Amino acid sequence: MDTYLVGGAVRDELLGLPVGDRDWVVVGATPAAMERAGFRAVGRDFPVFLHPETGEEYALARTERKTAPGYRGFVVNAAPEVTLAEDLQRRDLTINAMARAADGTLVDPWGGRADLEARLLRHVSPAFAEDPVRILRTARLAARFAPLGFTVAEETVALMRDMVAAGEADALVPERVWQETRRALETDCPDEFVRVLRDCGALAVIFPELEALFGVPQPARWHPEIDTGRHLLLCLRASARLGLEPEARFAVLTHDLGKGTTPRALWPAHHGHEERSVTLLRRLCERLKVPTAFRELAEVVARYHGLCHRAAELRPATVLKLLEAADALRRPERFRQFLGACEADMKGRDGLADAPYPQAELLLRALAAAAAVEPRALVAEGLSGEALGERLRAERIAAIAAACPRD
Description:
Elements: E1 2-6, H1 8-15, E2 23-27, H2 31-36, E3 40-41, E4 48-50, E5 57-60, E6 63-66, E7 74-77, H3 84-89, E8 99-100, E9 106-107, H4 112-118, E10 120-121, H5 133-145, E11 151-152, H6 154-165, H7 174-185, H8 190-199, H9 203-206, H10 208-211, H11 228-241, H12 246-254, H13 273-288, H14 292-309, H15 316-325, H16 332-347, H17 358-372, H18 375-380, H19 385-403
Parallel strand pairs: 2-5, 10-11
Antiparallel strand pairs: 1-2, 1-8, 3-4, 4-5, 6-7, 8-9
Helix pairs in contact: 5-7, 5-8, 8-11, 11-12, 11-16, 12-14, 12-16, 13-14, 14-16, 15-19, 16-17, 17-19
């Protein structure tokens, strides 16, 4: 029984990055032998065990044979005779197909270290095409490692295109799509995730609402980048640069979906795209089982980002309506996320990446002023019901006007 550190831990160590989870492969063992050694079996599709002390995952070396479409259509062979090289060959990318022996020796039968040095994401073997999740993983890793100069090898992009053409991307289940998308949004270059998926044709299958944005023009006066798809990519990069939380980055990803359904005859204008965006967003979230917190923030951003951009022009009464519609008084932290997404939208334009966004500061002042007007004092005056509501609203409008005087 020989044990090897494998996968991302070896890759990240060689890149000089912090090593997170550590995965291990055991060669020459059986499930019974692992259990006798105190390991606890947890694998459903193949033999995986938890170390009795560290809790780290140890998998028996295995090979796989494709038997049906999708990522579950495999027959697994985890016999003791399976070699380490055979196990590594079934992995997705060469940079993930290296192992470290107990004595520190690097085992690299598929050229992973050379591809690390060349900054290439390259598939190990044609077996890559048997698992559609690898399309998503490759796009996510492209997003993660783009700051280090990594790109996807041309032959791997070509293979991914063949997979999409063969219908493999149609077999992706919503949970895996969302899992990989969320992780990609947390990287420094989430736009690269979208770009890679589009390059191989998978974006049109997985996110047709996003694919529809490319090639759609916007008014040059407000969008020097013109193309709505290019604007999306710039916005995603801005969301990472601003350090936004994942919920806000998802809101940036989906804030302009309605522009993809604007009739061509109306281009480059997109009147009413906000409500169309919300409709498309809800369908997308239902399809991918997106968590409620992500969906709710994204709806607010899709519907009100244009109003946020015009904050300095709004009357105090309209500002209060925006605060109420965004539920800012009850959920101020989510409102900050809303403002961050709106700022990323504004900065996701050619020449505006470093432009200030005073709208955020103005609306936060307005929120603080409105929140300072509490209903308890008015109730103490004997007000209730409709009269209380009207008075509370009037005083909040006055407070906003005092805190945010218009030019």
